[in-house]
């Protein structure tokens, strides 16, 4: 398998994704359509003195779902955007946790992709599950400077 993380479109995503940098997120491409995203829970993620804000967990899983889809379409010179995101929060994420989002594409069409994922902490506790619908479109709609 090619290392899709080094594809020019994914490399450009890394440069553009300032929000991911702010939250301390990083990812690895396991294979086409499968991504693992990680985020340590720090003070900037907290909604209470000890628990992460749900928006932080949502940002992590949305990023994982999106990049999983991006690995499906980048070789066709496309990018993706979230059309619908559904999250179920099952347990709190606590300060000091290392969260891992595991996302896999379940169906990939020419324009619409379906993807599912989960977030666990370092103890293997299930924090959240999610599913999303993504729209794929030509990268030229957002930039001509990718290549």
Description of the structure:
The chain has 147 residues and is α+β, with helices and mostly antiparallel strands. The chain has one domain (4-141): Hotdog Thioesterase (Thiol Ester Dehydrase, Chain A). It is 24% helix and 39% strand. The protein has three helices and six strands. It has helices at residues 8-16, 18-23, 54-73, and strands at residues 26-31, 34-40, 78-89, 98-108, 112-120, 126-138. A six-stranded antiparallel beta sheet has the order 1-2-4-5-6-3. The longest helix is centred in the middle third of the chain and has 20 residues, at 54-73. The protein starts with 7 loop residues before the first helix and ends in a 9-residue tail after the last strand.
What would CATH call the class? Answer: Alpha Beta
Beginning-to-end CA distance, first to last residue:
21 Å
What is the total number of structural domains?
1
Write the CATH fold name: Thiol Ester Dehydrase, Chain A
The DSSP helix count reads 3
Overall geometry? globular
Oligomer: single chain
Rg, nearest Å: 15 Å
CATH architecture: Roll
Question: Quick one: CATH superfamily?
Answer: Hotdog Thioesterase
Indicate the low-confidence ranges by residue numbers. none
Helicity range of the residues?
10-25%
Compute the number of strand runs: 6
Strand order of the largest sheet: 1-2-4-5-6-3
Secondary-structure element string: HHEEHEEEE
Strand residue percentage: 35-45%
Keywords:
PAAI_dom, alpha+beta, 147 residues, Thiol Ester Dehydrase, Chain A, 6 strands, six-stranded antiparallel β-sheet, single chain, globular
Short description:
It contains three helices and six strands. The radius of gyration is 15 Å and the shape is globular. InterPro entries: ACOT13, HotDog_dom_sf, PAAI_dom, Thioestr_dom.
């Amino acid at each position: 398998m090619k290392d899709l993380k080094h594809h020019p479109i994914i490399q450009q995503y890394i440069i553009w994704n300032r929000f991911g940098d702010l939250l301390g997120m990083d990812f690895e491409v396991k294979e086409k359509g499968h991504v693992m995203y990680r985020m340590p829970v720090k003070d900037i993620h907290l909604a209470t003195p000890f628990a992460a804000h749900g928006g932080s967990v949502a940002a992590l899983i949305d990023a994982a779902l999106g990049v999983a889809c991006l690995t499906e379409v980048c070789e066709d010179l496309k990018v993706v955007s979230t059309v619908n995101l559904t999250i179920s929060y099952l347990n709190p994420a606590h300060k000091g946790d290392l969260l891992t989002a595991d996302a896999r594409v379940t169906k990939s069409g020419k324009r619409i992709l379906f993807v599912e994922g989960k977030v666990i902490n370092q103890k293997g506790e299930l924090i959240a599950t999610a599913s999303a619908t993504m729209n794929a479109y030509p990268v030229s709609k957002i930039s001509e400077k990718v290549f």
